[in-house]
Here is the input.
Amino acid sequence: MLSYAVCEISGKQYKIVPGQPLEVALQKGTGDIETSVLLLSEDGEVKIGTPYLKEKLALKRLEDTKGKKIRVSKFHAKANFRKTTGFRAKFTKVMLAVKK
Here is the structure.
């Protein structure tokens, strides 16, 4: 039985635990996401790839969400310059579906 895995998704590494949802950077398209596996812990045995293992993990897409809004303010003294903008990161919530 799979304990956990470390996968690369969009150039970032994430620890994936079965039954636990995970927020990753927004993934384009619809349907399941297939990831490359860097490390796999299964039945107390740890497999480490060089850099990847042959196994792939399929992640089930749960929903696309937006993160917390971040406010950014710019101010220049004595120049009457004030500017406020906002940023809101977009995430895809995924969960481990199947090991291939």
About this structure: The two ends are 13 Å apart (CA to CA). The mean pLDDT is 92. Residues 2-99 form one domain.
